[in-house]
Amino acid sequence: MTKFSWRKAALVAAVVPMLALSACSSTGGKPADSGNAAGGGQAASTPRIKVALITHAAAGDTFWDIVRKGAEEASAKDNVELLYTSDPEAGRQAQLIQQAIDQKVDGIAVTLAKPEALKDVLKKATDAGIPIVSLNAGESVSSQLGAFTHFGSNEQLAGQAVGTKLAADGYKHPVCVIQEQGHVGLEARCAGVKAKVPGTEILYVDGKDMTSVQSTATAKLQASKDADVIIGLGAPITLTLLKSVTDAGSSAKVASFDLNAELAQKIVDGAVLFTVDQQPWLQGYGAVDAIWQNKRGGFNIGGGQPVLTGPAVIDKSNAADVLTFAQQGIR
Questions:
Q1: Distance between terminal CA atoms of the chain?
Q2: Contact call for residues 37 and 75 (beta carbons, < 8 A)
């Protein structure tokens, strides 16, 4: 398999010195409405501040536990009270942002999966003088919605990385599975794949119902005999797609975005070709720490540009090393 490296991504490297101040499994997930900062060690001597982390996480999606774990570690270091809430429905996510504004938080970290639904309430936050950082989704519109920086992977580039890797290995007919239609980051991933492999087809599934995901993907593979690889955009989806390949009797290979310990093991075992990790722990940590840095010194991490936490390609050559960190719940 052709080697692929994103080590030349300068902004990814820039995250490392920032961290000196201190990327989903198929079941589980922490309750969405609890969450003060956790962790031991000596907290900063700066005045305690309150930061709201508001995501579009669906209940039970443990990808967000990794984001939250990073945010909690930064909160413990920075003397931050962390208020974590989430809702996959954009209108309700907007209500959670309004709730944070009403609580007079000192900063808001927010995902922008469906930015149009959040723009009005985020303007209220900026009008109230509350600094905003975005993470995970919405990089392209982050600054327009008032965020002073964004932590995440460039999803178009991540998709192109996958497409380039697949094209180099001779794949011509990928099926790219989107589990939430209209999610700007997921759409960008598949668009990036298609830009490099024009034969890519898009398959929409209901990511909240894994039984439906499995049956829909199985039907697609049965109908599309020329499909040579199927791509999941999250670890739980990808692990379900493995079942679909078996159910369909398909010869299609499986590739992925994102990571958890089970998926890392599947890569080690050769059942999954590779994944592209956006390193979600860094997103949670960086978002909270950036707000603290902004409050304590007026610092704007990123210099007005997004801080990239990916893409990081994980294949059989490095999956065993990454698996160790995935088992710790930070990759």
A1: 23
A2: yes
Closest-CA residue to 268 (of 311, 323, 231) = 323
Separation CA 124–CA 152 (nearest Å): 24
Mean pLDDT calculated for residue range 38-42? 54
How far apart CA 109 and CA 301 sit, in angstroms, is: 14
Contact 277, 331 (CB under 8 A): yes
Helix (H) or strand (E) holding 101: helix 90-102
- Which residues are 201's β-sheet partners? 175
- Is 251 buried (19+), middle (13-18) or exposed (0-12) by CB count in 10 A? exposed
Distances (CA, A) of 84 to 51, 87, 109, 181, 278: 9, 11, 10, 25, 20
pLDDT per position as a tens digit, 163-176: 999 999 999 999 99
pTM for the whole thing?
Answer: 0.80
CA pair distance 13, 15, nearest whole angstrom: 5
The pair of three-digit structure tokens given for residue 111, joined into one six-digit string: 């995902």
Find the Cα–Cα–Cα–Cα dihedral 242, 248, 254, 256, rounded to 10°.
-60
Rama region for 290: left / alpha / beta (φ>0; ψ in -120 to 50; rest): alpha
Q: Per DSSP, what are the bridge partners of residue 257? A: 276
The answer for 302, left when phi > 0, alpha when psi is -120 to 50, beta otherwise, is left
The model's pLDDT over 277-315, given as tens digits with 9 standing for 90+, comes to 999 999 999 999 999 999 999 999 998 899 999 999 999
pLDDT digits (tens, 9 = 90+) for 212-226: 999 999 999 999 999
Q: Over the stretch 207-264, which tens digit does the pLDDT of each residue have?
A: 989 999 999 999 999 999 999 999 999 999 999 999 999 999 999 999 999 999 999 9
Which is more confidently placed, 6 or 167? 167
Q: The tokens of 276 are what?
A: 């592209």
* Cα 209 from Cα 7, distance rounded (Å): 36
- Measured distance CA(310)–CA(219) in Å, rounded: 32
Spatial distance between the Cα atoms of 100 and 52, rounded to a whole number of angstroms: 6
